[in-house]
């Protein structure tokens, strides 16, 4: 099959119909808006037609009881945006669970001496007890901050990541933060990311972005010698080292990465961000807010880019270089040329093993669209994709990536995803830990596309080689052929029946 | 350029290549505004001192690296041990994503649970509507036999009344009137995951037993295992022993199949678990035995209230703990402990005798849930080892007293200290100031291993970074063999690592040990 393939839209329409028929009416009506089949670019804009290639309702409340895969605002703030800032102590403020379950789980790599000047893979909590709920937790928070200062004096600042009860019992964490910041002469950031706010992780990202604006920017004199090539990398959480595999390229083309948000970041990198010349944004969903703010207030332009797979890396590098002019553009071409043999060798090795293999994705942030071309660089085809917590502007951006007939599912439920996968029987599914084992039980290869399944990096040229290797080892492992006991008759998959 | 298609380097080797090391050093120097190296080194040394330890142990409010989770995790685990049961957690939805991930990362298995997805409006108006819609959706989509409802702290803080809500939902037809919806209030700000387990177990039993006539079936026994990341191996081992004895028993809550489904092309959302009919019939048992006392305090009280004899154990592992468990079962059931079990016991003793010289006098730090710490401490002393630090973040004063009594019962317990309510950052100070040979705990202990150099043995939930350990038992005599072998492997591997330098330690690198 060529890359101009069309997906089996008819099958996908039928699958949507089938899953919806299983819901109670009220839920079916609500879920219907989240599921669709991508139309062709040319068909868009016709009277009464959809607005984008994959138009679904998004960023609205999940339905109770259907097994949404989404997380919460706390996960968006502590887990995603703030947690990776390495020289700050992030207090999970409230009961013990939230901090415990998110402890060391996002693989935000960093350098430093953990527990001494660096604190990412630690779980700091105020461990609320009943009395804290009844009498309020502000006094306790004050004491927690004092104890952090005493035991971890090299921290550069503290954030207070609110868990559900904080907003419900009326605590004033802002007042505590102000008071303690003055007392200890430290940056202390209260974040109102209680898990019940909003409909997913997404509002937590936004709240965390706002907290940077309100509690970090313009609070200190920042001494910094600027250069014309200063950029911030925004929305790269350095999962498995992604940001490092990106930084090495940006430095090679002659740029100076003065801040990386927020993987391997220090508070200093965040404070100086407004002095950069350009914001390069990878995960648009989680950090576009602060980029828009920096554009408005400090006049810093921002640009989206994509460092998954050679096609997008090249296009992105050229786009970035264009912003800086001929000198950087020349260096960029040299860098692209330098890595070409690696890319060619990786594709020569892996493409024949992966050509024509079909993939279903269900991830968060940017990946449901950003990784599509990386798969296509290896000859693979995306047959379905969707976002846990995307907004309308994410789906608009996705239209450019997907082929006609691609199944689109927003805030997919456990039931839907299982039925879609069963019906389509793709060669690979890329999603999260909760989805991994059900899919593998079905005999379908799987890669976690949040944590890179404990591998990575996947960004940049170095990362692409790893990505290709990992997709190959997932799909071409001999275990998938051992599922059926030889004395048992094999069942015919649904997709094969539909094709007949 | 370090990367190549022939030999693809992922993160572990890639970032140790010179290109990346130089880049990261330059990043630090130019952009991170770090503390001077000497300041960092000094602080690091300071954290190893008694002075730091005193400050560390004096903490009253801040908790760092605790070894406990919150109540609903225990409730979700408990529900997974019943036939076709879906956990329904009432409150914010992010919590459920966390419980599912946490369980999946340990078991390497699917973990299903749903949320009532309460948001800001529900915080104001209460979550009744979420319960009504949610139960209907769960019932229709996931075809459960039972829905077990627990709560996140959000629902608890706003005071949602589960009993009333479930009644309302039934009245509105969300699920049939006679459909089983047991529930437990599981506030995260009280106790820990083991209390959530207790709450859900009590909720399930009350649901099926309240108001029912009990006709005692003499000699029959209920077994409640408690929250156990090794349930897959352990429950099967306990069954093996009870089957050998020919006891009539019911496991109430058994997640061993749910968290160990085969890969054969079919995803089983539900597998195994205690049958609803069996839970009902278990009311008539003569006795209910809990394998983990601190997981079942309320549940066992309830069992006693309905007229059952009760007894509890501390994770029966090792020789004497298994002896006691079997003798209790024998006393209640009237069944003899058969020769086959005596032989199993003898094999464990044999192994301990064979290896005693390597174990005698070894010093240990042990942490985990209260019953587990008790069990391991006891077994370590049976091997001639010396527990030095016994820590349970969710340990109570009663646990501390029981531990001290246990330690006082053996000369090997003389130097031990019990740390109830302390966390793993406290353990770090303990290991620096009063070092031990081996640390027994879970995956979180790897940071202690890195900081203090104490070899870590992973024997309790959660184990994220090693695979399949939970498929093998720790309980019973055969479980004891497994624990023994694991400890010995760690000791021998360490000794080999320390004597492996060619031309330097060609001695001591012995072929036979």
Automatic annotation (TrEMBL), chain A:
Its cofactor is [7Fe-Mo-9S-C-homocitryl] cluster; [8Fe-7S] cluster. Its EC number is 1.18.6.1. The keyword Lyase does not apply. Keywords: ATP-binding, Iron, Iron-sulfur, Metal-binding, Molybdenum, Nitrogen fixation, Nucleotide-binding, Oxidoreductase. It catalyses: N2 + 8 reduced [2Fe-2S]-[ferredoxin] + 16 ATP + 16 H2O = H2 + 8 oxidized [2Fe-2S]-[ferredoxin] + 2 NH4(+) + 16 ADP + 16 phosphate + 6 H(+). CDD domains: Nitrogenase_MoFe_alpha (cd01976). Residues 72-473 form the Nitrogenase/oxidoreductase component domain. The keyword Nuclease does not apply. SUPFAM superfamilies: Helical backbone' metal receptor (SSF53807). GO terms for cellular component: molybdenum-iron nitrogenase complex. Gene3D superfamilies: Nitrogenase molybdenum iron protein domain (3.40.50.1980). GO terms for molecular function: ATP binding; iron-sulfur cluster binding; metal ion binding; nitrogenase activity. NCBIfam families: N2-ase-Ialpha (TIGR01862), nifD (TIGR01282). Belongs to the NifD/NifK/NifE/NifN family. Tetramer of two alpha and two beta chains. Forms complex with the iron protein (nitrogenase component 2). This molybdenum-iron protein is part of the nitrogenase complex that catalyzes the key enzymatic reactions in nitrogen fixation. This is Nitrogenase protein alpha chain. It comes from Microvirga vignae.
UniProtKB/TrEMBL annotation, chain B:
Signal peptide: none annotated. GO terms for molecular function: ATP binding; iron-sulfur cluster binding; metal ion binding; nitrogenase activity. It catalyses: N2 + 8 reduced [2Fe-2S]-[ferredoxin] + 16 ATP + 16 H2O = H2 + 8 oxidized [2Fe-2S]-[ferredoxin] + 2 NH4(+) + 16 ADP + 16 phosphate + 6 H(+). The keyword Oxidoreductase applies. Its EC number is 1.18.6.1. Keywords: ATP-binding, Iron, Iron-sulfur, Metal-binding, Nitrogen fixation, Nucleotide-binding, Oxidoreductase. Residues 70-490 form the Nitrogenase/oxidoreductase component domain. One of its GO terms (cellular component) is molybdenum-iron nitrogenase complex. It comes from the Bacteria. Binds 1 [8Fe-7S] cluster per heterodimer. Its cofactor is [8Fe-7S] cluster. Residues 1-56 form the Nitrogenase molybdenum-iron protein beta chain N-terminal domain. InterPro entries: ChlB/BchB/BchZ, Nase/OxRdtase_comp1, Nase_comp1_CS, Nase_Mo-Fe_CF_bsu, Nase_Mo-Fe_CF_bsu_N. It is an enzyme of class 1 (oxidoreductase). Tetramer of two alpha and two beta chains. Forms complex with the iron protein (nitrogenase component 2). This molybdenum-iron protein is part of the nitrogenase complex that catalyzes the key enzymatic reactions in nitrogen fixation. Belongs to the NifD/NifK/NifE/NifN family. This is Nitrogenase molybdenum-iron protein beta chain. It comes from Microvirga vignae.
């Amino acid at each position: 099959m060529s890359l101009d393939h069309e997906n089996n839209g008819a099958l996908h329409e039928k699958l949507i119909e089938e899953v919806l028929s299983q819901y109670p009416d009220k839920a079916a009506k609500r879920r219907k808006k989240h599921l669709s089949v991508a139309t062709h670019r040319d068909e868009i804009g016709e009277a009464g037609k959809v607005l984008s290639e994959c138009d679904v309702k998004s960023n609205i409340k999940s339905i109770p009881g259907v097994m949404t895969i989404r997380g919460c605002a706390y996960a968006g703030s502590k887990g995603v945006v703030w947690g990776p800032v390495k020289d700050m102590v992030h207090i999970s403020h409230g009961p013990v669970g939230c901090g415990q379950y998110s402890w060391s789980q996002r693989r935000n790599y960093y350098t430093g001496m953990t527990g001494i000047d660096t604190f990412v893979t630690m779980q700091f909590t105020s461990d609320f007890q009943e009395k804290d709920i009844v009498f309020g937790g502000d006094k306790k928070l004050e004491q927690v901050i004092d104890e952090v200062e005493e035991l971890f004096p090299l921290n550069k600042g503290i954030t207070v990541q609110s868990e559900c009860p904080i907003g419900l019992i009326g605590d004033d964490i802002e007042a505590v933060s102000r008071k303690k910041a003055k007392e200890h002469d430290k940056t202390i950031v209260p974040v109102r990311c209680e898990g019940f706010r909003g409909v997913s992780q997404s509002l937590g990202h936004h709240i965390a972005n706002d907290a940077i604006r309100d509690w970090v920017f313009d609070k200190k004199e920042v001494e910094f010698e600027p250069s014309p090539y200063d950029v911030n990398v925004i929305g790269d959480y350095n999962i498995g080292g992604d940001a490092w595999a990106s930084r090495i390229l940006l430095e090679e083309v002659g740029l100076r990465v003065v801040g990386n948000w927020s993987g391997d970041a220090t508070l200093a990198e965040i404070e100086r961000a407004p002095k950069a010349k350009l914001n390069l944004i990878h995960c648009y969903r989680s950090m576009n807010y602060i980029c828009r703010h920096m554009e408005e207030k400090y006049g810093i332009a921002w640009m989206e880019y994509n460092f998954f797979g050679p096609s997008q890396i090249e296009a992105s590098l050229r786009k970035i270089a264009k912003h800086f002019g001929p000198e950087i553009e020349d260096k960029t071409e040299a860098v692209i040329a330098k890595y070409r043999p690696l890319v060619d060798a990786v594709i020569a090795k892996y493409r024949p093993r992966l050509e024509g293999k079909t993939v279903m994705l269900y991830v968060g942030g940017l990946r449901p669209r950003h990784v599509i071309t990386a798969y296509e660089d290896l000859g693979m085809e995306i047959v379905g994709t969707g976002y846990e917590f995307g907004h309308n502007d994410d789906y608009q951006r996705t239209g450019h990536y997907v082929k006609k007939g691609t199944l689109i599912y927003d805030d997919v439920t456990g039931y839907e995803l299982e039925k879609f996968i069963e019906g389509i029987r793709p060669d690979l599914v890329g999603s999260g830990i909760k989805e991994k084992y059900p899919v593998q039980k079905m005999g379908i290869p799987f890669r976690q596309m949040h944590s890179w399944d404990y591998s990575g990096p996947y960004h940049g040229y170095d990362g692409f080689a790893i990505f290709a290797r990992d997709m190959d080892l997932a799909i071409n492992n001999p275990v998938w052929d051992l599922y059926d006991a030889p004395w048992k008759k094999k069942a015919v998959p649904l997709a094969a029946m539909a094709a007949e | 350029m370090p990367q190549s298609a022939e030999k693809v380097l992922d993160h572990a080797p890639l970032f140790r290549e010179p290109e990346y090391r130089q880049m990261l050093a330059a990043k630090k120097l130019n952009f991170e505004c770090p503390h001077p190296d000497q300041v960092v080194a000094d602080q690091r040394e300071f954290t190893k001192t008694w002075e730091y330890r005193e400050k560390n142990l004096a903490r009253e409010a801040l908790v760092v690296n605790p070894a406990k989770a919150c109540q609903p995790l225990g409730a979700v685990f408990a529900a997974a041990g019943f036939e076709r049961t879906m956990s329904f957690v009432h409150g914010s939805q992010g919590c459920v994503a966390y419980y599912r991930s946490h369980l999946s990362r340990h078991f390497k298995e699917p973990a299903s649970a749903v949320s009532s997805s309460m948001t800001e409006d529900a915080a104001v108006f209460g979550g009744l509507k979420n319960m009504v819609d949610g139960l209907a959706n769960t019932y229709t989509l996931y075809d459960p036999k039972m829905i077990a409802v627990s709560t996140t702290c959000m629902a608890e803080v706003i005071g949602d009344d589960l009993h009333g809500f479930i009644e309302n939902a039934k009245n509105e037809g969300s699920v049939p009137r006679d459909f089983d919806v047991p529930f437990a209030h599981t506030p995260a700000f009280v106790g820990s995951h083991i209390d959530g387990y207790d709450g859900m177990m009590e909720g399930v039993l009350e649901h099926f037993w309240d108001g029912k006539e009990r006709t005692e079936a003499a000699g029959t026994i209920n077994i409640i295992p408690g929250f156990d990341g090794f349930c897959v191996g352990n429950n099967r081992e306990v069954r093996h022993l009870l089957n050998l004895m020919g006891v009539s028993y019911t496991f109430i809550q058994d997640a061993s199949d749910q968290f160990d489904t085969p890969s054969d092309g079919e995803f089983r959302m539900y597998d195994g678990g205690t049958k609803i009919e069996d839970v009902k019939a278990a009311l008539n048992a003569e006795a209910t035995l809990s394998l983990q006392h601190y997981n079942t305090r309320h549940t066992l009280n309830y069992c006693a209230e309905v007229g059952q004899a009760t007894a509890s154990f501390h994770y029966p592992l090792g020789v004497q703990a298994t002896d006691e468990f079997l003798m209790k079962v024998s006393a209640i059931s009237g069944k003899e402990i058969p020769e086959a079990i005596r032989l199993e016991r003898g094999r464990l003793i044999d192994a301990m005798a064979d290896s005693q010289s390597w174990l005698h006098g070894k010093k240990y730090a042990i942490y985990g849930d209260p019953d587990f710490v008790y069990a391991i401490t006891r077994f370590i002393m049976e091997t001639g080892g010396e527990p030095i630090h016994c820590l349970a973040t969710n340990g109570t004063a009663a646990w501390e007293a029981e531990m001290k009594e246990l330690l006082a019962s053996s000369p090997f317990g003389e130097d031990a200290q019990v740390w109830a309510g302390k966390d793993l950052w406290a353990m770090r100070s303990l290991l620096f100031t009063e070092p031990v040979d081996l640390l027994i705990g879970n995956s979180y202990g790897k940071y202690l291993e890195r900081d203090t150099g104490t070899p870590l043995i992973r024997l309790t939930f959660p184990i994220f970074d090693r695979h399949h350990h939970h498929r093998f038992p720790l309980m019973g005599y055969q479980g004891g063999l497994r624990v023994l072998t694991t400890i010995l492997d760690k000791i021998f591997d360490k000794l080999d690592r320390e004597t492996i330098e060619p031309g330097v330690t060609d001695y001591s690198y012995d072929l036979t040990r």
